[in-house]
Design goal:
The complex is a heterodimer. Helix content of chain A is 78%, strand content 0%. By secondary structure, chain A is mainly α. In chain A, α5 packs antiparallel against α6 and α7 packs antiparallel against α8. Chain A is elongated, with a radius of gyration of 21 Å. The N and C termini of chain A lie far apart (50 Å). The relative contact order of chain A is 0.06. Chain B is mainly α. Chain B has eight helices and no strands. Chain B starts with 6 loop residues before the first helix and ends with a helix. Classes of the chains: A mainly alpha, B mainly alpha. Chains A and B meet through α13 and α15 of A and α1, α4, α5 and α7 of B.
């Protein structure tokens, strides 16, 4: 027997609450277990809309945990089939995130725009912020800096006040866009504000992003001692957290700083570490990076 | 009226041109190369025009695909652009008082003269 759509499902609500609490506390594996239980409860309850919502929540977290292939077909089906704009926005945004993690930024942008259109239909500020943030990420990775910056500004207008980490990462991304547009002072101000707030709230992942960005900003401003300091701490945090892309970027920037400080031996040592750990098949990497400044070729968010 | 191009953009364009040349030497279309390195054809097109920045991974993937050493790949770029150390020296020079700049120039001439004498000996 199925229950009429919209009827409350206590077990679904209980599991969803437990999942949200675990997710907010950073216990993602535990949160996934509760989202799966919520999905099961929704299926037993027989409310199709609730099933789709539960599936979106479970899939979104699976994607964050690295499962970027398996959830996409079900999510795509929801986008095509479901008439509820907010559920479609959730599904489309999760697909966009999966493609972002796969570094397929074009498809990510397509689904992020679908998510934005559905969020506008649903008049959901939070969903709209998520979609605009996702659009910004896809555009930034594709070097469309002005439009990316505008998407981040739109996202910042509707990110809920209590979502501090999300708001700060969006602010840092906007700051990085501005750095690449040559608006160094403005970009620097935003990233410093992000760093201060991240430290105040103990958000180490945000602090790591801000410090690596500040290293880049100070390099561009030719303040090499400041760049060195931010790069070193950013690298340390990236190693602690284990974010490989950030480790690579921080190593590269730190090596570049050392060379610009006329410490070629130190620069070569850092570039050699970058080569040894991540590009063992590229034996000339350290030599190249000591001699050619490839900064204008590199997008730290790609 | 010509518009001055910043050195940074010029360097990106140089690398873009090098990628285009290597691709054509290997008789690859943009579509073929882009699918091998896992980026979109239009992004590769922008990269060849010097309008596109990539991740460190992608940059080194391209080099691996062409099977050239990084030194060879950047040879043209290195010849036409200053190293970070050289840029620093030029910047320091510009910040000196004109009298001090003349002294540096005299010193360079002196060193060059010495090198010529050593070469003749």
């Amino acid at each position: 027997m199925t229950i009429a759509a919209g009827a409350p499902c206590m077990e679904y609500e209980r599991q969803r609450g437990l999942a949200e609490a675990a997710k907010d506390a950073g216990r993602l594996a535990e949160a996934l277990t509760h989202y799966s239980a919520a999905l099961q409860a929704a299926r037993v309850h027989g409310d199709g809309e609730l099933v789709d919502r539960a599936l979106c929540a479970e899939a979104a977290l699976s994607i964050e945990l690295g499962e970027v292939e398996a959830p996409v077909p079900d999510l795509r089906e929801i986008v095509l089939r479901n008439g509820n704009a907010e559920t479609c926005a959730l599904a489309a945004r999760a697909i966009a995130r999966a493609y972002e993690l796969k570094k397929d930024y074009r498809k990510s942008l397509f689904y992020a725009r679908v998510a934005r259109d559905r969020a506008e239909q649903a008049k959901s500020g939070e969903r709209l912020a998520a979609a605009n943030n996702q659009i910004g990420n896809a555009l930034l990775a594709q070097c469309v800096f002005e439009e990316a910056a505008e998407s981040y500004r739109r996202a910042l207008r509707t990110i809920p006040a209590e979502r501090t980490e999300w708001r700060l990462i969006c602010t840092a991304n906007l700051g990085y866009c501005e750095l690449l547009q040559g608006k160094l002072r403005s970009g620097l101000r935003r990233i410093y504000a992000t760093l201060r707030e991240a430290r105040r709230q103990g958000l180490q992942r945000v602090e790591m992003i801000a410090r690596v960005d500040l290293c880049y900003a100070h390099l561009e401003l030719r303040r090499y001692r400041d760049a060195e300091r931010y790069g070193a701490r950013g690298l340390q945090l990236a190693e602690e957290i284990g974010e490989v892309d950030l480790i690579k970027n921080a190593l590269y920037l730190s090596g570049q700083v050392a060379v610009l400080l006329d410490d070629e031996a130190r620069g070569r040592e850092i570039f050699a570490e970058l080569q040894r750990r991540f590009y063992p098949g590229q034996p000339f990497l350290a030599d190249l990076l000591v001699n050619v400044d490839v900064r204008p070729l590199i997008n730290l968010r790609a | 009226m010509s518009v001055a191009t910043s050195p940074k953009i010029r360097q990106v364009q140089l690398v873009g041109r090098k990628i285009r040349r290597l691709r054509k030497e290997r008789q690859l279309t943009q579509t073929e190369l882009s699918s091998r390195i896992g980026i979109q054809q239009s992004d590769l097109s922008r990269m060849e025009k010097g309008e596109y920045r990539v991740s460190l991974d992608t940059l080194f993937k391209i080099l691996a695909e062409f099977d050239v050493t990084i030194g060879e790949f950047f040879d043209d770029v290195a010849k036409e652009s200053l190293s970070p150390r050289e840029v620093n020296i030029a910047r320091e020079f510009k910040s000196l008082h004109p009298d001090a700049q003349r002294e540096v120039e005299d010193f360079i001439l002196f060193k060059r003269g010495n090198e010529r004498q050593d070469g003749d000996a």
